[in-house]
Design goal:
It comes from Myxozyma melibiosi. It holds the Pfam family GST_N. It is built from ten helices and four strands. With 258 residues, the protein is α+β, with helices and mostly antiparallel strands. α1 packs antiparallel against α6 and α4 packs parallel to α6. The longest helix has 33 residues.
Length: 258
């Protein structure tokens, strides 16, 4: 397998970030980590916007042996870049042109366009909403929690079909792929958005089994220890996390207005 010469991941302990760190660890690729400090609005600084013009995480910079630099933003694009360039054995992917390859793309794009944005809004209204109007927050929570549940039902149904038709525990084909990792990063935050994983038995088993894989566990702890399950169940930790999120969202909003 070709290995990166100089690969840096710019990330934080958020769903989109751990999608990429788990992929890098599972493929056992060498890389450096640069933790982005949201509290300091580091993601808005000019140097970082040169890497990721959207001012979000994650992003990667890949410098080859000739010194050629490639910057990639957007977690879905990064996952595909990593597997296209560094996964010739298809440990986390499927051969280009195969049926499984296009199914993998379907679920990566489904997550990027659906589960991530909807669950992200559920998290915002439940944990970070700064509106003084309680009706606004209540509407947002109801709207996006319901949509997140619907999307998790789609995943539950997919896993049931995979088990019945392929005897597979994964979203695509017969082994773990970036389709699973794209969704895992978000499903692990289910309790944080007020959804109990026990509502979806197959999805609960799926996330527990994948998270227990040693290399995946290592990736979840990048750049800091993964503790969202503990935080979601501890009122004081949850209060602290919500306050921190509200603070940087407010700062970020003010900076973007300028």
């Amino acid at each position: 397998m070709t290995k990166p010469t100089d690969l840096t991941l710019y990330t934080a302990s958020v769903p989109n970030g751990i999608k990429v760190s788990t992929a890098l660890e599972y493929l056992e690729l060498p890389y450096k980590v640069y933790p982005i400090a949201f509290s300091k609005l580091e993601q808005k600084e000019p140097w970082y916007l040169e890497i990721n013009p959207n001012g979000r995480v994650p992003a990667i910079v890949d410098v080859d042996s000739a010194g050629e630099k490639t910057c990639v933003m957007e977690s879905g694009a990064i996952l595909l870049y990593i597997t296209d360039k560094y996964d010739p054995e298809n440990k986390l992917s499927y051969p280009f042109g195969s049926k499984e390859y296009y199914e993998m793309l379907e679920w990566v794009f489904w997550q990027v366009g659906g589960l991530g944005p909807m669950q992200g809004q559920a998290s915002h209204f439940l944990r970070y909403c700064l509106s003084d109007n309680p009706d606004v927050q209540a509407y947002g929570v109801n709207r996006y929690q319901n949509e997140t549940r619907r999307l998790m039902t789609v995943l539950e149904t997919r896993l049931a079909k995979q088990k019945a038709t392929r005897n597979s525990a994964y979203l695509v084909g017969d082994h773990l792929s970036v389709a699973d990792l794209a969704c895992l990063g978000w499903v692990l935050f289910d309790t944080y958005v007020g959804i109990e994983s026990s509502e979806f038995p197959l999805l609960e088993k799926w996330q527990d089994e994948i998270s227990a894989m040693p290399l995946i566990k290592k990736g979840l702890d990048v750049p800091t220890e993964f503790r969202i399950k503990q935080v979601a169940k501890d009122p004081e930790l949850l209060k602290q996390a919500s306050a921190a999120g509200q603070s940087w969202i407010k700062k970020g909003g003010e900076a973007e207005k300028k």
